[in-house]
């Protein structure tokens, strides 16, 4: 009814964390406000006030500097200065008005006594940037768990038991009969030994009967072991459904036996079977479905059609509140499926590979952090057995696959880091030399390449080729302080901004920018740090979160800092995905430029916290090397 | 008016008037108010206790028009404390004129639930004792308050005042360029000084808005540490 003080309470209610309070309590808080006015270029607190007070900016601007006179941050309308509530910060930061400033101040103890039922208020002001971010991500992760099923559900929710088996001595016909009788498409082939203990030796599917028996004219009285797949992939039962999807995608299999403890308590026993259909039925129109239709695509044109679904999938996942990690992994899995399918098409045209090779993804795809229609980074590692006459085959493969991927929207790498470039299509020994050179004589260009090639993963072919290169590399980088110093110096050139000032991004030297490049000034610095930790500690993982988890507690990074960095990384990732989802929905090309105008007050707060977390670890990196 | 006379006389005049009015005032709130000395004009401004006051009225003329609502808030040590704020609608007899209702947005219904004039004036007098009254455009508040005191106590007491409109006017006059009177409006002056928009024509909001404006005006005056009360007093 009354409008007196209505403006002030409306103003207060729009500012985090007061926006979480009921209106009646806000009115009580308003009554506790003191209004004061401070001319430009004056120190805070005004009038030599000593008690702990919060200062809420109604109009004007504050500038924070550290004891070296370095700009720390700027604050303006609707932001809160809590420096004088924290005894530790009071001496660390100097606060001055930059403009004539109208402040609403609240006695901190009085505030706390009014909001005892709302501990989030005290937490908001007293927590460090990392702690606030952790709280935010805890909430986000809960949402993600609710919204996503594959990544957060154990494979046990999808598999079926028991696993049906057949003895390796039994005939192909007996296998077919058993499948028909049980209405299943797959049997595990076992070797029955004494005392009834059976060891799994392979797997046979109805497809094997069609392809390896009927099509080949093989007699169905032959033992089933003749047509089984011997090196059978399995997964431990504590894995997530998502792990199963990844494994089935990379191996191009539809059936995956799950291992666990037997009733007798022995580990390694086959306990269940999961099929790609089990996973698909669960998630409707999604990554699993797309992966599975990619496998069935017969031509590049089919693949192009399917690739159009990718942005839609990414939008849908982002809108569902799925974690950035999950989305990156899903899109990467799909890119992997595209690549494998195109390689298969190429092999169909040009015949089988003359010598073993590995098709390797680099950069974001390898890290499983790819987004729809990003550019392709790839390479070929060819067995050292390769002969000059084989070169044409690999050249054909590379150009076919790179062109095919480009047709599907994975644009050709502007830096020409692709297998179609002869420089990146080399025998294993040349790759050993490349890495040897990058690590032992680090030059800026070498390290630029390094940042792409230090993140690599086998998409198709002989994994050992890459694994050997990687282990040799890691042996050279681990504890190599000269190399790590160069890598660190390179990585530290990308700095997060200090924060925001009005509708601008505030850069360290006090300059303003109209938009935030969330990729280069937020996400990339974390990716770079994680890479340095991994190379320093000899960690083989390439996914940023995995690298951070594995490096946590090592000399490179503490457990706590790693957890903070993961929170920051996830938060920035989600923000980027939401931003891109909005652009994609509006029919615009996705980019990484966030306009501060479009960010909510809370998002700005969380961003500033994320920047602080990154900056702290960059600073500590800088002082290490 | 008084402001044309030499400083010495009108300062002396306020205290002399206070004592004369005190002698005539009946026992009660007005006498209590008048029993406290007005602040010494030589007191530094920063040490003065100020009460920013605003009235909403049915019109501009104290004789015929009525007080509708009163809002006030204290300013101490250049800080406005919302804890000490007061806002009250007054229960008057007359029906409200529709044109006015649009401005102050106090309806007849709200007015019916208001407090009696005497109660409101006494609350104001109590808060005002020993303080200087701050207003924007002194004539309205002075005349309506004196008229109310005359009606309630038979005495029209003096009220030492600071007027943000007069401060602005003096500054404009010094510049010796023509200006539009609308430039002296509270909202216009606030805008010029970079203060945020406020919801005008609510007595408490206007009192706060006036107090903020005074803080800005004081901070802009050269060497504001040496300012004393008589530099600003009407």
Relevant terms:
heterodimer, A: 625 residues, alpha+beta, Jelly Rolls, CBS-domain, Beta Polymerase, domain 2, four-stranded antiparallel β-sheet, four-stranded mixed β-sheet, 24 helices, 22 strands, 48% helix, B: 234 residues, alpha/beta, Nucleotidyltransferase, domain 5, six-stranded mixed β-sheet, 45% helix, globular
Please provide a written account of the structure.
The complex is a heterodimer of chains A (625) and B (234). Chain A is 48% helix and 17% strand. Chain A has 625 residues and is an alpha+beta fold. Chain A has four domains: 6-126, Sandwich (Jelly Rolls), CATH 2.60.120.10; 128-284, CBS-domain (Roll), CATH 3.10.580.10; 285-468, 2-Layer Sandwich (Beta Polymerase, domain 2), CATH 3.30.460.10; 478-624, Four Helix Bundle (Hemerythrin (Met), subunit A) (Up-down Bundle). A four-stranded antiparallel sheet of chain A has the order 1-7-2-5. In chain A, strands 16-15-14-17 form a four-stranded mixed sheet, sandwiched between helices. Chain A has a three-stranded antiparallel sheet with strand order 4-3-6, with no helix packed on it. The longest helix of chain A is centred in the middle third of the chain and has 27 residues, at 324-350. The model of chain A has no long low-confidence stretch (mean pLDDT 86). Chain B has 234 residues and is α/β, with parallel strands linked by helices. Chain B has one domain (2-232): Ribonuclease H-like superfamily/Ribonuclease H (Nucleotidyltransferase, domain 5). In chain B, 45% of the residues lie in helices and 14% in strands. Chain B is built from ten helices and six strands. In chain B, strands 1, 2, 3, 4, 5 and 6 form a six-stranded mixed sheet that branches. In chain B, strand 2 and strand 3 (79-81) form a beta hairpin. Chain B is globular and about 45 Å long. The model of chain B has no long low-confidence stretch (mean pLDDT 86). Strand 1 of chain A pairs antiparallel with strand 3 (79-81) of chain B, so a sheet runs across the interface.
């Amino acid at each position: 009814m009354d409008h007196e003080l209505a403006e002030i309470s409306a103003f207060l209610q729009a500012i985090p964390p007061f926006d979480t309070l009921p209106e009646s309590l806000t009115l009580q808080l308003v009554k506790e406000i003191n209004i004061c006015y401070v001319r430009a270029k004056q120190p805070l607190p005004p009038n030599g006030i000593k008690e702990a007070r919060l200062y809420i900016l109604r109009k004007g601007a504050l500038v924070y500097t550290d004891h070296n006179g370095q700009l720390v941050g700027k604050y303006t309308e609707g932001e809160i200065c809590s420096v004088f509530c924290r005894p530790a910060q009071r001496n660390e930061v100097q606060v001055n008005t930059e403009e004539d400033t109208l402040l609403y101040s609240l006695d901190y103890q009085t505030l706390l006594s009014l909001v005892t039922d709302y501990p989030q208020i005290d937490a908001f002001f007293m927590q460090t940037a990392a702690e606030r971010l952790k709280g935010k991500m805890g909430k986000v992760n809960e949402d993600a768990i609710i919204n996503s099923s594959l990544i957060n559900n154990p494979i046990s929710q999808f598999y079926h038991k028991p696993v049906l088996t057949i003895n390796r001595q039994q005939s192909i016909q007996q296998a077919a009969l058993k499948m028909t009788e049980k209405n299943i498409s797959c049997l595990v082939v076992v070797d029955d030994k004494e005392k009834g203990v059976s060891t799994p030796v392979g797997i046979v599917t109805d497809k094997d009967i069609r392809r390896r028996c009927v099509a080949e004219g093989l007699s169905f009285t032959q033992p089933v072991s003749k047509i089984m797949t011997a090196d059978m992939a399995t997964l431990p039962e504590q894995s997530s459904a998502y792990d199963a999807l990844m494994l089935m995608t990379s191996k191009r299999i539809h059936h995956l036996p799950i291992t666990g403890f037997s009733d007798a308590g022995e580990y390694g026993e086959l306990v269940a079977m999961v099929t790609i259909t089990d996973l698909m039925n669960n998630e409707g129109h999604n990554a699993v479905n797309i992966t599975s239709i990619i496998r069935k695509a017969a031509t590049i044109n089919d693949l192009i059609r399917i690739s159009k679904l990718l942005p839609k999938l990414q939008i849908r996942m982002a809108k569902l509140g799925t974690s950035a990690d999950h989305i990156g992994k899903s899109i990467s899995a799909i890119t992997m499926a595209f690549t494998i399918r195109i390689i298969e098409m190429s092999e169909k045209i040009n015949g089988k590979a003359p010598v073993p090779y590995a098709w390797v993804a680099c950069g974001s795809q390898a890290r499983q952090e790819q987004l729809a229609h990003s550019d392709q980074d790839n390479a070929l590692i060819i067995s050292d057995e390769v002969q000059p006459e084989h070169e044409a085959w690999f050249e054909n493969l590379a150009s076919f696959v790179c062109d095919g991927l480009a047709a599907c929207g994975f644009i050709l790498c502007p830096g020409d880091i692709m297998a179609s470039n002869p420089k990146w299509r080399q025998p294993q020994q040349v790759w050993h030399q490349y890495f040897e050179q990058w690590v032992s004589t680090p030059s800026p260009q070498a390290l630029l390449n390094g940042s792409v090639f230090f993140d690599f993963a086998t998409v198709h072919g002989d994994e050992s080729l890459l694994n050997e290169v990687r282990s040799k590399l890691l042996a050279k980088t681990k504890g190599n302080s000269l190399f790590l110093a160069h890598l660190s110096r390179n990585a530290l050139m990308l700095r997060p901004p200090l924060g925001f000032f009005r509708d601008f991004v505030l850069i360290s030297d006090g300059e303003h920018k109209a938009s935030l490049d969330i990729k280069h000034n937020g996400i990339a610095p974390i990716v770079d740090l994680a890479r340095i930790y991994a190379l320093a500690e000899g960690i083989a993982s390439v996914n940023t979160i995995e690298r951070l988890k594995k490096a946590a507690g090592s000399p490179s990074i503490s457990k706590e800092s790693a957890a903070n960095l993961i929170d920051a990384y996830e938060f920035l990732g989600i923000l980027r995905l939401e931003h891109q989802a909005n652009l994609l929905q509006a029919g615009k090309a996705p980019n990484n430029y966030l306009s501060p105008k479009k960010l909510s007050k809370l998002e700005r707060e969380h961003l500033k916290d994320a920047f602080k977390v990154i900056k702290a670890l960059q600073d500590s990196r800088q002082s290490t090397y | 008016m008084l402001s044309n006379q030499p400083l010495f006389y009108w300062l002396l005049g306020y205290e002399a008037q206070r004592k004369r009015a005190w002698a005539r005032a009946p026992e009660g709130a007005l006498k209590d108010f008048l029993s406290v000395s007005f602040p010494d004009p030589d007191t530094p401004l920063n040490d003065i206790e100020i009460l920013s006051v605003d009235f909403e009225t049915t019109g501009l003329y104290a004789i015929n028009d009525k007080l509708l609502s009163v809002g006030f808030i204290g300013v101490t040590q250049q800080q406005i404390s919302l804890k000490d704020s007061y806002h009250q609608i007054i229960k008057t007899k007359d029906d409200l004129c529709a044109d006015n209702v649009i401005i102050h947005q106090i309806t007849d219904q709200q007015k019916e639930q208001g407090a009696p004039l005497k109660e409101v004036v006494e609350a104001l007098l109590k808060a005002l004792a020993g303080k200087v009254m701050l207003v924007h455009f002194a004539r309205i508040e002075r005349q309506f308050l004196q008229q109310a005191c005359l009606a309630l106590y038979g005495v029209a007491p003096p009220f030492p005042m600071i007027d943000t409109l007069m401060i602005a006017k003096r500054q404009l006059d010094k510049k010796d360029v023509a200006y539009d009177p609308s430039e002296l409006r509270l909202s216009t002056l606030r805008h010029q000084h970079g203060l945020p928009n406020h919801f005008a024509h609510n007595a408490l909001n206007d009192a706060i808005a006036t107090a903020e404006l005074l803080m800005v005006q004081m901070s802009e005056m050269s060497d504001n540490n040496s300012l004393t009360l008589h530099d600003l007093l009407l």
